[in-house]
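Moderator note: this is an archived Q&A kept for reference. The question asked for a predicted structure of one protein chain; the sequence and the answer are reproduced below.
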Amino acid sequence: MPDYRDDLRLAHVLADAADAATTERFKALDLKVETKPDMTPVTEADKAAEELIRSQLKRARPRDAVLGEEYGIDGTGPRRWVVDPIDGTKNYVRGVPVWATLIALMEAGESGFEPVVGMVSAPALGRRWWASKGHGASTGRSLSSATALRVSRVSRLADASFAYSSLGGWEEQGRLDGFLDLGRAVWRTRAYGDFWPYMMVAEGAVDMCAEPELSLWDMAAPAIVVTEAGGTFTGLDGVPGPHSGNAAASNGLLHDVLLDHLGDRRTGV
């Protein structure tokens, strides 16, 4: 099993730099916000954080490729860093503290690129989660203050907590009926949104979550944190990993029933 400790330490360094840039501008009255072609917002902090990460990677891992939300792909090869400088930009713009920098290292394998290191850093929450392949998932403020993560053991839908982001995407994709049926069947539903539900699944506070439309940089880091905590992360098509354009994450025990309600085998998509 490869040892990714150096890459994980680097991910912490990258997250430290990004956290400094994003927290400095959080709630700034003169924060500059633009609208991208896909009609989503981007701030000067998004751009600055990604530029910092790219700059440090260029020095520390010059042979590795980098894929970021704001500046696209740079480089080729069997190792690729995937970066979302601020996941939850709409929260960031409104002063809601639920946002994070997502950093993942992916390596080429038999079935394509797969995450081998993941970092989710949410400085406004004072939380950080991370994982490396074969070495488990942890949370804490740093490597020296780590607590191991483990998913829940809830196995009955009636006892389960389900988290999501919003209703709109489910309706647009013709999955709203299954979504509502699932919401009626579980013990509790909450719309925490963005990266946070996946981290809650990893730490056992939530039993399952799903989103109907995502990009690779939204999923790469959360995917390995969830799986290294003992959970399951797939697309709504049931394919493992972060490449399906959407996501379903669970403690594993509830994954089949989650896909029964929301997945492609129900909708025939």
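Archived answer notes: DSSP finds nine helices and 15 strands in the chain.
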